[in-house]
Structures are given as structure tokens and as C-alpha cells.
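This protein record is not my work; I was only asked to verify it. The record follows directly below this note.
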Amino acid sequence: MSKALRILIIDDEPQIRRFLDIGLRAEGYEVVLAATAAEGLMLTATVAPDVVILDLGLPDQDGQQVLVQLRTWSEIPVLVLSVRDGERDKVRALDAGANDYVTKPFSIQELMARLRALLRHRGQDEQPPIYDDGRLRVDMALREVTVDRQAISLSRKEFAVLGMLVRHRGRVVTQQQLLRDIWGPSHVEDTHYLRILLARLRQKLGDDATTPRWLKTEPGVGYRLVDGERTLG
């Protein structure tokens, strides 16, 4: 019998902890609960969770600082769950090392889908050289892309953006991350570069921005490769 995956919830709202505890246990996960930043960081170090669900509004320390501290010693996947729905907060959390961001109030179905994506792709910082979901195939070593076995010609930057999304598939990659890594630090505000490039990339892949199969926009924040899954409405 396989060991149950362990989820650490760091949230100061008792009703949220109880709700998630019941929902996650019903899905077969082991759940550990923390109500403060200090308790959450201690449990992250001692119980070795597979994923952390982190609230930003903690009583003893802001969740953004928890992320910064955590990323100095751990690459554990972190899903931020917060009432803060502003683009600035989302970008800050993702740049600080969060793997995904869900705003309250939230759908439990959406949360479970995001959680499954993180668990499916944990430990994939060292990606295999070939991504293949049955339709889209990206050979990172040969720099070849095919859709339904038809070769797709991409520019150097188009391939770089697609490759970065593939390496972090299931997670949000912020606009600033893409611009900094591909265009350089002096272009982190040039978001129109990305909009133009993503439009071309979608056209070449045959992907529809309104109902994306692969390239989903997180408005004002960044982009996500949804791994050939149906996107959440």
C-alpha cells in the first residue's frame, strides 16, 4: 500500500483549516495543520510535507515573508491560498517562490485540481528532455516541436518561452520571470513583448486563447502550461 501524500496547511482561520482538513482527508491525503507562520515553518522542517498550502494573512508574520524564508532552504511546492486578489500580491508571491496562487473564496474542485498538478510535477526541476502529452511534443535537446506529429517552426524566443512553460508545467510563470530570463533584466516591464509572442505561439500551436488547451493566461500575472488538461472555468 502506497504512503499517503502529506499536505501542510498554514492558515489562521479555523473554519478554513477544518474545511480543507475534511476535504483533503476525503481525497486520501494526510493533513497537518498550523495556525501561525512560526508553527508552519517548524512543521515544514520536521514533518516533511509533500505540499504546503499557505495563507498570506498570518497573525505573527506575513505569508510573503514565510515564502522568502522557506525558499532559503527548501524547494517544496507551495500553493498560496489568500483573500488578497490583487495582481501585485499574486506577482510578489509567485516571484518569492510560490508555485501557484488561489484566491478566497475558492472552489474546492479548483483547489484540488491545482493541488494535483503540483503533486504530479513535484521534483521536476530536472526535466526529462522530451515532453509529450499525446498531441504536443517538445524535444528540449533537439529544440523540436510537433503538434499531432506535424513539425512546428518556432523562433528562438518562441521556443525559449514554450520551453520555460514546459519545464514549469502546471505552475504559473510570471511575466517578469519570462521577461527577465529570456529578454534580460532591462526588459522586465516590456509586457507587450510577451503578449505579441504568446499570440504568435498560440497561432502556431493551434491553441485558442479563450479556451486554451496548453497556454493559459493568468491575467496580469503570467502564464501556465496546463499540460493538455481542460482548463478550469
Remarks:
- Helices lie at 14-26, 37-47, 63-70, 87-96, 108-121, 156-167, 175-183, 191-205.
